[in-house]
Amino acid sequence: MIGRAILRTTFWLSVGDAATLVAFAVVAIVVARRLGAAALGDYSMAMTIGALLQIVADAGYNMWLTRTVARQPERIGAVLAEAIGTKAVLWCATLPLALAVAAAHSSTALALTVVVALDVLTSCIGFAVLAALRGVERYVAPQLISSGYSLVAAVAMVAAIVLCDSLVLAVVLMTAIGTGRALHLLARFRAETGEHFHGEHLAASLRLRNVAAQLRQQWRLWLVNIASSIVHRVPLVVLGLRGGSAEVGYFSAAFRIYSAARIVPGALFNVALPRLAADGSTAVVRSIAVTGAALGIGIAAAMWIAAEPIVRITFALDAAIEPLQFFALAFVGLSLKTTLEALLIGRRRDRLVAGAVTLGAIVSIVVALLLPPTATMFSLLHVAIEWLLFIVLAVWLVRWRLR
Fold first, then answer.
1. Which of 40, 160, 205, 318 is deepest in the core (most CB within 10 A)?
2. Residue that wins the pLDDT comparison between 356 and 94
3. pLDDT at position 12
4. What is the Cα–Cα distance from 42 to 19, expressed in whole angstroms?
5. Do the beta carbons of residue 115 and residue 53 sit within 8 Å?
6. What is the pLDDT of residues 139-159, one digit of tens each?
7. Domain hosting residue 167, numbered range
8. Pseudo-torsion of CA 322, 329, 241, 39, nearest 10°?
9. CA 13, CA 277: separation in Å to the nearest integer?
10. For the chain, how many structural domains are there in total?
């Protein structure tokens, strides 16, 4: 029964996330087919920098909020307001560095990143709401609402690219629709919980002293998010700084398809975390572990077998086929690693996860600076890092359980 409930909720979350990722994959496909590999590289660079900005601004709240609300549901309004305030402060502090990195790649990437950064700010609000609602297990409908806004944004972006050949206009439309999503989710939060948004907590959280105090409580989860983003996102940025936009485009095409598959272990993590925080029984742990392993192996096998037709039907960039096959190997390690992360974080073993992922981030940066700047070599880097992280977490989990 537990396994079926986990699978059912994972399925619905995956449907929403899949719709979002497929929609934005279509945007990337249209960019590649209409504007070329170099334009896809500039667009991917801006979106990746925006994703890194969002992870830093997130401050670990997307995990901390869920776990805290699951244990103290009566504080949901206060902790959500504190989270949004802290995220806004960190976004302001990180923005100059994000724009500097974009400018080092190209002027087009800089222009796109300016607009993407505004979308990141609204997304920080929306994701905080979703994380808080996960703690009280009232998040499937809000998650699907969020995905619906993403679908609308993707349609608007495709129209802007096809009709106006303008990436900047497309990203402006994405940001405008994202603002509407954030407002809608805040209204949904009140409807789901009956809680008012605590303005006094929001105002207090904008003070640097309070931000520092809050981060001290969750710095390990913040480190996990930042290090995970370095593992998954920074290689593309390094490839963009060392290679040309076209090579980034080939890598990005394969990574987009890989990212569509990554929603499944991500959804499983979101389902597992509140359950493990509230109930760490052997039955729950076993169900989550078996589900994670089965999904990882099955999806990876399908990705490897279908790599060639998928790439040719979508991006029509043959240079992305081999990287996608390597990403299939990386996916097995990713799925197993994500399952172990949920088990450890759910039992408040944040230090172990933070240490492992930080190690992976350091290795990823060092190796990325030494590898030949090609899409194939950088996809191999993902294989090595994901399996390294799984092995490290597995060894630490065994040692912890044997104590």
1. 40
2. 94
3. 57
4. 24
5. no
6. 677 877 888 898 899 999 999
7. 2-402
8. 50
9. 19
10. 1
